[in-house]
Model the fold of this input.
Amino acid sequence: MDEVVKILTEKHKTIATMESCTGGGVVNAITNIEGASEVLKFSAVTYSNEYKIKMGVDSQIIDKYSVYSMETAIEMSTNIAKFANANYGVGITGKLNRIDRFNPEGQDNQIFVSIYDVDNNKYYNFDLLATKPTRKENKALIIEAIANKLLTII
Done:
């Protein structure tokens, strides 16, 4: 994330995140970098469907595609960018090493990431399988993938 924060700072761009399965890991990685306050606008950890919806995710998207879907990740990236008035919004949802009794749909350990570039009205979406044995290792895998993707976008 060092390079991400550096480039965002140089380009006078900002970022906001709405995270679920990463539990704030992406924003933590950003705020570990000196100068992060110049680029980070806002972050929300929305573990529950209720708070995804309160942050703007359309409940009909969750009902139709499930909370574990690219469609939900897109809603997350769009709404957090708009809420924070940021240049980039990052939305992350998926299951890490557990079954969700409230949301049984979706493949275990499949993670959906959407990065919304507001200025160009463009989405950069990808999914990955979190195959590491621990949640901590899987979060690190996801954060690294997001950092690498941001470097190709910004």
